[in-house]
Amino acid sequence: GVITINDKPMTGASMKRLMSKIAYVKQNDVFFGHLTVRDQLTYTALLRLPSSLPKASKHEEVDRIIKLLRLSKVADSPIMLLSGGEKKRVNIGTELLTDPAIIMLDEPTSGLDSTSAVSLMNLLHTLAKNHGKTVVTSIHQPSSAVFRSFDRLLMLAEGSAVYFGSPVESLSYLRDLNLACPDGYNASDHWMDLLVIDSAIEEEEEEEDQEDDNAMAITGRTNTAENSSDDSNNDGLHQRRQISVARGSPRVQLICAWDSEAVAEQNDIAEKEGSDSGKDVGNLNKIKKYNTTWLTQFGVLTHRSLKNSRAAIFTPLNFVKSIALGLIAGLLWFQLGSSEKYVSDKSSYYFFTMTYWVFDSMFGALMSFPAERVVILKERASASYHLSAYFLGKTVSETPTRLTLPFIYMLISFWMGAISPDFTVFLGSVACTLMSVLAGESFGLMIGTSIYDMERAMTVMTVCALGLMLLGGFYVQNVPSFVAWAQYLSPFKYSYDASLHIVFNDQDVPCDGSGALGALCGGASTGSVPGNQVVEFLGVTTSVGFNVGLLTVLIIVPRFIAYRFLLSKKGGERS
Q1: What is the DSSP letter of 98?
Q2: In angstroms, rounded to a whole number, what is the distance separating the alpha carbons of residues 499 and 435?
């Protein structure tokens, strides 16, 4: 088919520009729950209102929308604490900030009580009458007050239009077809009774008809002496079928009675008499897809992401978790010495540290992204910003928040365990840990953007994470040659190897007769082993620079792949 506006076909470019003038309010209210109402509206205003508009004017517009939608009392409350009706009004307010010409709503009253539903419809009616908006909405089981609040009503059945006009005139139309609504009965319920037939009832009637047909076939094989009984059965079956047809006839009758072509011709005539058919379409070419520059979008999205991630990550529970883990690790590896028998303990400390925090960042990114992805696709559909501005802003803003918790853990456990008295070793160890956290987050984002089904994504993430951990060089040092290539994909290996280099390479390890270093000490309790030999003994063959470089690659490449996957999901898909 062809989409036309005022008889003018819409091209791809015109459609994208038109979408920025259409507000689409989904049935589910999709927001970042940690943001307040004012935050949500302010960020939307800064992103979608023209750059030429002063910042103070944008804040004034936010205040005006809050007052218009009667949200003043909850303006500074987190969205996740609002009622259903309040969330719906925030959803509408988010779209109204762009001054759209058309507002489309998908069942806006679903989940609301009757009072909230009527209040919401009155608000939409005010927007249409006093603010010049065209409001188009689907509705689910409206009350009488909601039903009568519409200016125009379109009823559909089996893909066909059965009525288009005012709600009041619809009752007269039904009366003319001898399908009058009973006195005191809800008009919308009466329409539904006529148009909707329970499929279970239809199947039951079909089964009854089939049973009757089978009974007639058997009866037809009897002798002629039973003809009188056959006639009686025939009459009964004919009666039942007439009742069955009568039950379904209102819907068929309404479909056949409605003359869609005649109504369309009347609408075309009225439109041509009332407006210039090419005017609105011509103006679409003057509409820019984005109202703000890339730098403005990047700044706003970075600030929003920082506030959102800070609220999600900097929770008391997460701080308690990091401190508790640091204390437990510090107690288990408490005040390790520097001799050979402590070498394996120190290497196990690093591997545990890398394993836990990489897993935490992997699954944290995977679990948090699906909800965020829905918001991103919704905002991209309304041409709020470039995807690149969002993705880079998210990376920049989340880096300090994501790294704070592992830093607290390292600050406690490293010094309690006396891993090294050298402060530069501490800084190097922290840097390796934090880089591994970012690499793990990149893997989580890549899986989260490529696999939309959460159960499948969790399965893939679990298999990949455990496989990469086994390739880290702690559990299996002699990896078979046919899978050795997979080691280069493991962030565990690079962070672990780099940390061992940093802690052992520049210091000699005293022998203590424990035999922990094998032939390097030869069982002697005197002398020492150079640090580089200890590193080789632990199976590390690459330099710190090599490991840090590949960690950087594992931070960047999966994020770029995640960006491409997200980009492949077109912003215009509003479903």
Answers
A1: T
A2: 11
Rounded CA-CA distance 245/206 in Å is: 11
Read off the pTM: 0.72
Separation of alpha carbons 209 and 216, rounded Å: 10
The span from the CA of 235 to the CA of 237, in Å, is 6
Question: What confidence tens digit (pLDDT) does each residue in 6-49 have?
Answer: 667 766 666 666 666 788 888 777 888 889 999 999 999 998 88
Distance CA 563, CA 376 (A): 12
Residue 85 has pLDDT above 90, yes or no: no
- Count of alpha carbons within 13 angstroms of residue 386, beta-carbon side: 12
Which residue type does 207 have? E
Cα Rg of the chain (Å, integer): 35
Query: How is residue 201 written in tokens?
Result: 């009832």
* Whether 92 contacts 24, CB under 8 Å: no
What's the pLDDT tens digit per position in 230-265? 554 445 444 443 444 444 468 788 888 887 666 666
Q: Give 397-439 as a 3 state SS string.
A: HHHHHHHHHHHHHHHHHHHHCCCCCCHHHHHHHHHHHHHHHHH
42 CB-near residues (< 8 Å, 6+ apart):
58, 59, 62
Residue 187 CB coordination number (10 Å): 18
Name the residue among 360, 455, 444, 368 with its Cα closest to residue 408: 360
3-state SS, residue 41: helix
Residue-wise pLDDT tens digits, 151-201: 888 888 877 888 888 888 888 888 888 888 888 888 888 888 888 764 445
